[in-house]
Amino acid sequence: MYKIMTAGPTQVKENVRMARSLETTNPDLDLEFYEFYKETCDMMQEMLHSTGTAYILGGEGILGLEAACASLTEPGDRVLVLDNGIFGKGFADFVTMYGGEAVLFTSDYQCPIHTEDLKAFLEKDSDFKYATVVHCDTPSGVLNDISKICPLLAEYGILSVVDSVAGMFGEYVNVDESKIDILCGGSQKALSAPAGLTMLWVSNKALEAMENRKTPIEAFYANILNFRTYYEDKWFPYTMPVSDINGLRVALDNVRADTGILERHARIAEATRRAVQKAGLKLYLREGYSNTVTVIAVPEGVTDEQILSTMRDRYHVMISGCFDVLAGKVIRIGHMGENANVDDVALTLEAMDKTFADLGVQLLCSMKEAFLELM
Ligand SMILES: *Cc1c(COP(=O)(O)O)cnc(C)c1O
Fold first, then answer.
1. Is 260-374 a CATH 3.40.50.1860 domain?
2. Please, are residues 360 and 301 in contact by the beta-carbon 8 Å criterion?
């Protein structure tokens, strides 16, 4: 068994695993399941301060991103894609797949989006049905300030779709205050349930936009409107994965009971970044660090694969490499959700200390010790 300290999926607590092994029902026919599903959605709404509607869809986090684009995009719609990271840019694929015209607002991948630059752009062109933005773009670990970006978009009458799959529950999210129209989440990041579910928080404005479409939504599985009247009609568009949702509910209970969760993420992330830098390694970003993941540049003389495989095979700790434009360039420690605890991060940094020693990379100090001194 490996210690899973990747940038998601994260470790899953025992009570979540136990909930997933409870006896199951027929979720289409059991009226109690409709109550349970709705209560769970209501709880999600309350936790992230939303007065719209929340839904749980059976499918990994990517389904939520696709569902948002599929449900909003009509052929010819102009959509602003805020691109300062790999997931950010990726939204353009979903927009074009459903017939929209994706207009990229590209900015430096090593910093968050600067709201003033976005404002200057919107002054010249704001004819967009909606915009997409990633809260924490996990490959680089950049944290975009959705509390400023989404209200700015709203000023220009642009709906916002936010991917907070790797942000929510590790970083503060307030859906209503930030005027977010569709917030996308996943079960396997800071919420620390296994992969398999996507969660959506949808504003009334977004639902109206879907209902007022001139053309039908070109999807079934990714059609948010198919969930609109599940409760009144006692009818889900497809059979809900009961065990996944049982686990999700307990994971939500865990987060709700953990009142210090955001503060702990912040403290552990800060100490991790400082320890890594004190040892002489470089962070990938220049500013705008998310508290859910630390992204470290691969030092000269070694490859990401050497680091990852030594950590995994010799020290039984799994961390992440990267893909796309960051393939081979960075390694990533996921310290979100159940991973955000001092012991596991210390153990990970100890494994990294030993790995770099094994690979002949000289560090200026022990990252584990530097981290523990700061905790
Ligand atoms: C993890 C993640 C997703 C979900 O996609 P995966 O297939 O699990 O990679 C979507 N967006 C972001 C920002 C994520 O970190």
1. no
2. yes
Question: How close is the Cα of 234 to the center of ligand 1, in Å?
Answer: 31
The pLDDT assigned to 371 comes to 98
User: What percentage of residues in the chain have a pLDDT greater than 90?
Assistant: 100
Span 182-206, average pLDDT: 98
Q: Ligand 1 pocket test: which of 82, 87, 192 has the largest number of ligand atoms within 8 Å of its C-beta?
A: 87
In the numeric block, the tokens 């977010």 are attached to 180
Choosing among 3.20.20.370, 1.10.10.60, 3.40.640.10, 3.40.630.30, the CATH entry for 14-257 is: 3.40.640.10
What average pLDDT score do residues 50-78 get?
98
Q: How far is the CA of 29 from the centre of ligand 1 (A)?
A: 32
- Per-residue pLDDT, averaged over 212-231, amounts to 98
Pocket of ligand 1 (CB under 6 A): 8, 60-62, 87, 134, 137-138, 163, 165-166, 186, 189
- The residue whose C-alpha atom lies closest to atom 4 belonging to ligand 1 is 61
Residue 32 C-alpha to ligand 1 middle, in angstroms?
Answer: 31
- 255 CA from centroid of ligand 1 (Å): 20
Burial class of 230 by CB neighbour count within 10 A (0 to 12, 13 to 18, 19+): middle
pLDDT at res. 365 = 98
Rounded Cα–Cα distance for residues 311 and 301 (Å): 17
Q: What is the rounded average pLDDT for all residues in the chain?
A: 98
Predicted local confidence at residue 72, as pLDDT: 98
